[in-house]
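Slide 14.
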Amino acid sequence: MSKHHVSARINGEPTEFLCEPQLTLLDVLRDELHLTGSKEGCSSGDCGACSVIVDGRLVCSCLMLAAEAEGCAVETIEGMAHGHDLHPLQQKFLEHAALQCGFCTPGLLIAAKALLDRNPNPTETEARYWLAGNLCRCTGYDKVIRAVLDAAAELRAE
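Slide 15: predicted structure.
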């Protein structure tokens, strides 16, 4: 089996990699590029732990072949903060204690970012609907929703 050469922008940086045709974007992110924030939870697109943003769309990286990332812009959790400066969503998750074990947190943060990129003023119902694809076994979702709505308000004020 021949490997595919893929050129993409990952977290704003031009990136090239070789991958087997059957490898998922999640496989390459974690195993080849050592971006381990995206987690493998279900491998079927049901839990949201592997969420990334590809060309502005929220994607389960476990369902996307790595070769399909050719020419795409991919955003992972590693690209949210700028050095020691947390993204407002990350800061609000901390302030609202919207995380516990942390396994689902990267996926929730990426999904929330995708929401706020698309809709900077979501209602609570819209936020709950948007994040419904992200499963968390440790928290109630109320703190997560409060953090997202608080971050949205802060981002609109900037």
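Speaker note: The domain at 88-157 is CATH 1.10.150.120 (DNA polymerase; domain 1).
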